[in-house]
Amino acid sequence: MSKNNTIFKLGLFSALFGGVYAFSNYIYKITSVPHQHSDGDADFDKLITDGRYFVRNNPDRQDMYIESIDQLKLHASYIPAKEKTNKYVILIHGIWDNHESNGIYAKHYLEKGLNVLLPDLRGFGKSEGKYIGYGLDDRLDIMEWIYWIIKRDPQAKIILHGMSMGAATTLMTTGEKLPENVKAAIADSSYSTLREQFASTYKSFKGSFVPIPIAIAIARAVILIRSGYDINDASPIKAVASSSTPTLFIHGDDDTFIDPHMCSRLYEAASCPKQYCMILGAGHIESVVKDPDNYWKKISEFLTKIDF
Fold first, then answer.
1. 35-193+234-305: what fold?
2. What is the pTM of this model?
3. Which of 51, 106, 203, 280 keeps 20 to 30 A from 224, CA to CA?
């Protein structure tokens, strides 16, 4: 009887361990393994697709490369303005995509006479990397791109403009000590903390039978072990509390992927000069196509106010 009981316990332990191991691999795969956007992947609007080809086929586009502090080769497309200027925008894309997704924004800024830099975040596009940084590691990469610009043009005036995970990256970058060349930041649809966003997203998964606190604890542990960072440290809301960079917070009120209330919380927590814009009827990062006139008007007013 005792022997049978021991066998039963060992079997139960093996099954439990195997289940946890399989679940942790599943969590890591869906949260942290990058996959590339292809031309076969549909965009949510034709204007986004048009923007991709605008960047890809731009005759002035140049491929640029730098090395991250952990020795990854990072790529960006650089498109100079038609006329010489010391004004630059760094456009930062979201998850599951690459720099070409920001072509619609690049086109606008080029028409306004700015130089445009479009980095591929680590693990995406032509940049090296085996895991998604969710803005935490990426903020350091963006700082490297900032210094890349300043090295070329010491008089550079730079704005950061990020979408979704790129917006979170933007905000976490502003939480660092930045050179005076960085004049402003625009965050379109950022989450407040990665932990909260993981919990919110996990609830929408089919078959999310593991209780949320346990699932998040497993995600935190496996990402710490395999990617080397703590998801609790990916906190735009903490970053903006120490930021001095003038920041415009934008969100669509019909966003079902990242809760629009996160935007208001970020705005309230920010210690920097700030403005807030909620675009009515826009889903996740749809504001630029749902209400482009209002979107770009708010950005223009914001940049004028900070004398950019």
1. Rossmann fold (3.40.50)
2. 0.93
3. 203
